[in-house]
Amino acid sequence: xxxxQFHMISGGPRPVAPFSHAVETDGWVILTGQMPTDPEAPDxxxxxxxxxxxxxxxxxxxxxxQGVGLDLSHVLQCRCYLTEFExxxxxxxxxxxxxxxxxxxxxxxxxxxxxLAVGALVEIDCVAKRP
Length: 131
Description:
The chain is α+β, with helices and mostly antiparallel strands. The protein has one domain (5-129): CATH 3.30.1330.40. Helix content is 24%, strand content 27%. It contains two helices and six strands, in the order βββαβαββ. The chain has helices at 49-67, 85-97, and strands at 5-7, 22-25, 28-34, 75-82, 107-112, 122-129. α2 links the parallel β4 (75-82) and β5 (107-112). α1 (49-67) packs across α2. The longest helix is centred in the middle third of the chain and has 19 residues, at 49-67. The protein is globular.
């Protein structure tokens, strides 16, 4: 097993806790859960609503993936966390699915939680694999 590499992506989302954007070993890349913060304005208010927050989270995941030379097509699994599960699940799914072709969607778990960092409605982490 190769030594793990700990990646902090220049221009990536500002961490809201002590973590690496991604950790990689043996071609597996594990991305820390991303929040709906704007990397160019990390102190700005979060986007309004689940659709806008989901888009920002997915765009932040794309930034981290690009920083390690990958993209969403390399994602094999996502874990999604929603603070308002019953209210937001359908709208979340509509936005989330627009980032993946229908025949290449990663495995996924979606969990309702009581709260997320920075008051977010959604957080997503993922596992990707180098080809």
